[in-house]
Amino acid sequence: MGILDPYKGFGVTFSTMFKKPTTEQYPEYKKETAPRFHGRHQLNRHPDGLEKCVGCELCAWACPADAIYVEGADNTDEERYSPGERYGSVYQINYLRCILCGLCIEACPTRALTMSNDYELADDSRADLIFTKEQLLAPLREGMESPPHPMRLGESETDYYTRDPDAPLPWQVGSTPGGGAPAGDTQAEAESVIARRVAGEHSRADEVPAHGAGSEQPR
Ligand code: SF4
Ligand code: SF4
Protein backbone atom coordinates (compact mmCIF):
# COMPACT_ATOMS: atom_id res chain seq x y z
CA MET A 1 0.00 0.00 0.00
CA GLY A 2 1.39 3.32 -1.01
CA ILE A 3 1.52 6.32 1.26
CA LEU A 4 -1.14 8.15 -0.77
CA ASP A 5 -3.61 5.25 -0.98
CA PRO A 6 -5.58 6.16 2.20
CA TYR A 7 -6.08 9.69 0.83
CA LYS A 8 -7.26 8.25 -2.48
CA GLY A 9 -9.78 6.07 -0.57
CA PHE A 10 -11.09 8.97 1.48
CA GLY A 11 -11.24 10.99 -1.74
CA VAL A 12 -13.77 8.53 -3.15
CA THR A 13 -15.84 8.82 0.04
CA PHE A 14 -15.64 12.60 -0.01
CA SER A 15 -16.65 12.92 -3.68
CA THR A 16 -19.61 10.57 -3.13
CA MET A 17 -20.98 12.91 -0.44
CA PHE A 18 -21.89 15.41 -3.16
CA LYS A 19 -23.59 12.96 -5.54
CA LYS A 20 -27.36 12.57 -5.79
CA PRO A 21 -28.52 9.54 -3.72
CA THR A 22 -29.83 6.60 -5.76
CA THR A 23 -31.92 5.07 -2.97
CA GLU A 24 -35.25 3.67 -4.24
CA GLN A 25 -38.17 4.29 -1.90
CA TYR A 26 -39.50 0.75 -2.36
CA PRO A 27 -42.20 -0.46 -1.61
CA GLU A 28 -43.81 2.99 -1.29
CA TYR A 29 -42.57 3.86 -4.78
CA LYS A 30 -42.46 1.04 -7.33
CA LYS A 31 -40.11 1.65 -10.20
CA GLU A 32 -41.49 0.84 -13.63
CA THR A 33 -39.59 -1.90 -15.42
CA ALA A 34 -38.45 -1.98 -19.02
CA PRO A 35 -41.35 -3.20 -21.23
CA ARG A 36 -39.65 -6.52 -22.01
CA PHE A 37 -38.55 -7.19 -18.42
CA HIS A 38 -38.86 -10.90 -17.54
CA GLY A 39 -40.99 -11.19 -14.42
CA ARG A 40 -43.65 -13.52 -13.06
CA HIS A 41 -45.01 -16.03 -15.60
CA GLN A 42 -48.53 -16.20 -16.97
CA LEU A 43 -50.42 -19.09 -18.56
CA ASN A 44 -52.53 -17.58 -21.32
CA ARG A 45 -55.97 -18.41 -22.64
CA HIS A 46 -57.70 -18.43 -26.02
CA PRO A 47 -60.35 -15.74 -26.57
CA ASP A 48 -63.12 -18.13 -25.44
CA GLY A 49 -61.35 -18.90 -22.15
CA LEU A 50 -59.88 -22.31 -23.06
CA GLU A 51 -56.27 -22.75 -21.96
CA LYS A 52 -53.41 -22.48 -24.46
CA CYS A 53 -51.24 -24.94 -22.53
CA VAL A 54 -51.31 -28.43 -24.04
CA GLY A 55 -49.26 -30.09 -21.31
CA CYS A 56 -46.34 -30.92 -23.64
CA GLU A 57 -43.66 -30.28 -20.96
CA LEU A 58 -41.31 -28.56 -23.41
CA CYS A 59 -41.00 -25.62 -21.01
CA ALA A 60 -39.97 -27.97 -18.20
CA TRP A 61 -37.34 -29.63 -20.39
CA ALA A 62 -35.96 -26.26 -21.49
CA CYS A 63 -35.62 -24.92 -17.95
CA PRO A 64 -31.97 -24.91 -16.82
CA ALA A 65 -32.99 -24.60 -13.16
CA ASP A 66 -35.50 -27.46 -13.13
CA ALA A 67 -38.09 -25.01 -11.82
CA ILE A 68 -41.14 -26.18 -13.81
CA TYR A 69 -43.28 -29.22 -13.15
CA VAL A 70 -46.01 -30.21 -15.64
CA GLU A 71 -48.43 -33.09 -15.81
CA GLY A 72 -50.55 -33.43 -18.95
CA ALA A 73 -53.95 -35.11 -19.22
CA ASP A 74 -56.45 -35.92 -21.98
CA ASN A 75 -59.36 -33.63 -22.80
CA THR A 76 -62.72 -35.29 -23.32
CA ASP A 77 -65.84 -33.95 -25.04
CA GLU A 78 -67.49 -33.72 -21.62
CA GLU A 79 -64.53 -32.04 -19.93
CA ARG A 80 -62.43 -29.83 -22.20
CA TYR A 81 -59.78 -27.39 -20.92
CA SER A 82 -57.88 -26.70 -24.16
CA PRO A 83 -58.74 -27.05 -27.87
CA GLY A 84 -56.43 -30.01 -28.57
CA GLU A 85 -56.10 -33.56 -27.29
CA ARG A 86 -54.17 -32.68 -24.15
CA TYR A 87 -54.05 -29.98 -21.50
CA GLY A 88 -51.84 -29.19 -18.53
CA SER A 89 -53.63 -30.71 -15.54
CA VAL A 90 -50.83 -29.85 -13.11
CA TYR A 91 -48.55 -26.88 -13.65
CA GLN A 92 -46.12 -25.48 -11.10
CA ILE A 93 -43.25 -22.99 -11.19
CA ASN A 94 -40.85 -22.96 -8.27
CA TYR A 95 -39.70 -19.36 -7.81
CA LEU A 96 -37.04 -20.47 -5.33
CA ARG A 97 -35.26 -22.00 -8.33
CA CYS A 98 -36.36 -19.79 -11.23
CA ILE A 99 -33.70 -17.37 -12.51
CA LEU A 100 -36.17 -15.58 -14.84
CA CYS A 101 -34.05 -16.41 -17.89
CA GLY A 102 -37.02 -16.80 -20.26
CA LEU A 103 -35.89 -20.05 -21.91
CA CYS A 104 -39.20 -21.69 -21.01
CA ILE A 105 -41.27 -19.12 -22.88
CA GLU A 106 -39.06 -19.52 -25.94
CA ALA A 107 -39.66 -23.29 -25.86
CA CYS A 108 -43.45 -23.08 -25.58
CA PRO A 109 -45.00 -24.02 -28.96
CA THR A 110 -48.42 -22.49 -28.29
CA ARG A 111 -47.45 -19.20 -26.61
CA ALA A 112 -49.28 -20.48 -23.57
CA LEU A 113 -46.44 -19.37 -21.34
CA THR A 114 -45.33 -15.75 -21.28
CA MET A 115 -43.70 -13.50 -18.70
CA SER A 116 -45.14 -10.37 -17.14
CA ASN A 117 -43.39 -7.31 -15.66
CA ASP A 118 -44.31 -8.31 -12.09
CA TYR A 119 -41.12 -8.61 -10.03
CA GLU A 120 -42.60 -8.94 -6.54
CA LEU A 121 -41.71 -12.57 -5.96
CA ALA A 122 -40.40 -12.56 -2.38
CA ASP A 123 -42.04 -14.36 0.52
CA ASP A 124 -41.19 -15.71 3.96
CA SER A 125 -42.48 -19.19 3.15
CA ARG A 126 -40.80 -21.65 0.79
CA ALA A 127 -44.11 -23.37 0.02
CA ASP A 128 -45.74 -20.09 -1.04
CA LEU A 129 -43.07 -19.58 -3.70
CA ILE A 130 -44.17 -22.66 -5.62
CA PHE A 131 -46.87 -21.15 -7.81
CA THR A 132 -49.67 -23.44 -8.96
CA LYS A 133 -51.58 -23.47 -12.24
CA GLU A 134 -54.47 -21.57 -10.62
CA GLN A 135 -52.08 -18.78 -9.59
CA LEU A 136 -50.39 -18.64 -12.99
CA LEU A 137 -53.48 -18.73 -15.22
CA ALA A 138 -54.44 -15.43 -16.85
CA PRO A 139 -57.64 -13.91 -15.47
CA LEU A 140 -60.82 -14.38 -17.49
CA ARG A 141 -61.43 -11.36 -19.68
CA GLU A 142 -64.77 -10.13 -20.89
CA GLY A 143 -66.31 -12.73 -23.20
CA MET A 144 -64.24 -15.60 -21.77
CA GLU A 145 -65.79 -18.60 -20.09
CA SER A 146 -64.10 -20.64 -17.38
CA PRO A 147 -63.12 -24.15 -18.61
CA PRO A 148 -64.14 -26.89 -18.89
CA HIS A 149 -66.39 -26.07 -21.85
CA PRO A 150 -66.67 -27.03 -25.55
CA MET A 151 -64.63 -25.33 -28.30
CA ARG A 152 -66.29 -22.03 -29.23
CA LEU A 153 -63.91 -20.87 -31.97
CA GLY A 154 -63.94 -23.77 -34.39
CA GLU A 155 -64.40 -27.42 -34.96
CA SER A 156 -60.81 -28.38 -34.27
CA GLU A 157 -57.57 -27.24 -32.63
CA THR A 158 -56.34 -26.08 -36.06
CA ASP A 159 -59.15 -23.51 -36.25
CA TYR A 160 -57.82 -21.91 -33.06
CA TYR A 161 -54.28 -21.54 -34.36
CA THR A 162 -55.06 -20.57 -37.95
CA ARG A 163 -57.80 -18.05 -37.24
CA ASP A 164 -57.19 -14.39 -38.01
CA PRO A 165 -56.76 -12.67 -34.62
CA ASP A 166 -58.78 -9.74 -35.99
CA ALA A 167 -61.62 -11.98 -37.17
CA PRO A 168 -64.95 -11.54 -35.38
CA LEU A 169 -65.76 -13.62 -32.34
CA PRO A 170 -69.25 -15.05 -32.02
CA TRP A 171 -70.06 -13.19 -28.80
CA GLN A 172 -68.39 -9.90 -29.73
CA VAL A 173 -71.38 -8.15 -31.23
CA GLY A 174 -72.95 -4.71 -30.93
CA SER A 175 -70.85 -1.58 -30.51
CA THR A 176 -69.25 -2.22 -27.13
CA PRO A 177 -65.50 -1.62 -27.48
CA GLY A 178 -63.37 -4.48 -26.20
CA GLY A 179 -66.02 -7.10 -26.82
CA GLY A 180 -69.13 -6.43 -24.80
CA ALA A 181 -71.94 -8.80 -24.01
CA PRO A 182 -74.27 -9.72 -26.89
CA ALA A 183 -77.41 -7.61 -27.09
CA GLY A 184 -80.75 -7.60 -28.92
CA ASP A 185 -81.19 -9.49 -32.19
CA THR A 186 -77.43 -9.88 -32.53
CA GLN A 187 -77.35 -11.80 -29.27
CA ALA A 188 -79.79 -14.34 -30.68
CA GLU A 189 -77.60 -14.55 -33.78
CA ALA A 190 -74.47 -15.09 -31.67
CA GLU A 191 -76.14 -17.75 -29.60
CA SER A 192 -77.30 -19.48 -32.74
CA VAL A 193 -73.72 -19.49 -34.12
CA ILE A 194 -72.39 -20.93 -30.87
CA ALA A 195 -75.13 -23.57 -30.77
CA ARG A 196 -74.40 -24.61 -34.35
CA ARG A 197 -70.67 -24.74 -33.61
CA VAL A 198 -71.22 -26.97 -30.65
CA ALA A 199 -73.44 -29.15 -32.84
CA GLY A 200 -70.74 -29.20 -35.55
CA GLU A 201 -72.74 -27.32 -38.21
CA HIS A 202 -70.91 -24.01 -38.24
CA SER A 203 -68.83 -22.39 -40.99
CA ARG A 204 -66.80 -19.16 -40.95
CA ALA A 205 -69.49 -17.41 -42.99
CA ASP A 206 -71.86 -17.80 -40.05
CA GLU A 207 -69.78 -15.62 -37.77
CA VAL A 208 -71.36 -12.38 -36.65
CA PRO A 209 -69.47 -9.07 -36.86
CA ALA A 210 -67.48 -8.16 -33.77
CA HIS A 211 -65.60 -5.28 -32.21
CA GLY A 212 -62.71 -5.19 -29.79
CA ALA A 213 -59.23 -6.47 -29.32
CA GLY A 214 -57.94 -10.01 -29.63
CA SER A 215 -56.73 -12.04 -26.71
CA GLU A 216 -52.99 -12.08 -27.34
CA GLN A 217 -51.09 -11.37 -24.19
CA PRO A 218 -47.63 -9.89 -23.67
CA ARG A 219 -44.70 -12.19 -24.16
S1 SF4 B 1 -37.51 -18.34 -16.60
FE1 SF4 B 1 -35.73 -19.76 -16.85
S2 SF4 B 1 -35.36 -20.57 -14.79
FE2 SF4 B 1 -37.41 -19.63 -14.74
S3 SF4 B 1 -38.82 -21.31 -15.17
FE3 SF4 B 1 -38.35 -20.35 -17.15
S4 SF4 B 1 -36.59 -21.50 -17.98
FE4 SF4 B 1 -36.76 -22.01 -15.78
S1 SF4 C 1 -46.63 -23.96 -21.11
FE1 SF4 C 1 -46.20 -24.37 -23.26
S2 SF4 C 1 -44.33 -25.62 -23.28
FE2 SF4 C 1 -45.17 -25.67 -21.17
S3 SF4 C 1 -46.43 -27.52 -21.10
FE3 SF4 C 1 -47.78 -25.80 -21.64
S4 SF4 C 1 -47.82 -25.78 -23.92
FE4 SF4 C 1 -46.07 -27.05 -23.30
UniProtKB/TrEMBL annotation:
One of its GO terms (molecular function) is NADH dehydrogenase (quinone) (non-electrogenic) activity. The keyword Cell membrane applies. It comes from the Bacteria. It is a peripheral membrane protein. GO terms for biological process: aerobic respiration. Pfam families: Fer4_7. Keywords: 4Fe-4S, Cell membrane, Iron, Iron-sulfur, Membrane, Metal-binding, NAD, Quinone, Repeat, Translocase, Ubiquinone. It catalyses: a quinone + NADH + 5 H(+)(in) = a quinol + NAD(+) + 4 H(+)(out). Binds 2 [4Fe-4S] clusters per subunit. Its cofactor is [4Fe-4S] cluster. Residues 142-219 are annotated as: Disordered. Its main location: membrane. Residues 152-166, 198-209 have a biased composition (Basic and acidic residues). It is an enzyme of class 7 (translocase). Residues 43-73, 89-118 form the 4Fe-4S ferredoxin-type domain. InterPro entries: 4Fe4S_Fe-S-bd, 4Fe4S_Fe_S_CS, NADH_quinone_OxRdtase_chainI. [4Fe-4S] cluster 2 binds at C63, C98, C101, C104. NDH-1 shuttles electrons from NADH, via FMN and iron-sulfur (Fe-S) centers, to quinones in the respiratory chain. The immediate electron acceptor for the enzyme in this species is believed to be ubiquinone. Couples the redox reaction to proton translocation (for every two electrons transferred, four hydrogen ions are translocated across the cytoplasmic membrane), and thus conserves the redox energy in a proton gradient. HAMAP family: NDH1_NuoI (MF_01351). Belongs to the complex I 23 kDa subunit family. This is NADH-quinone oxidoreductase subunit I. It comes from Parafrankia colletiae. The gene is nuoI.
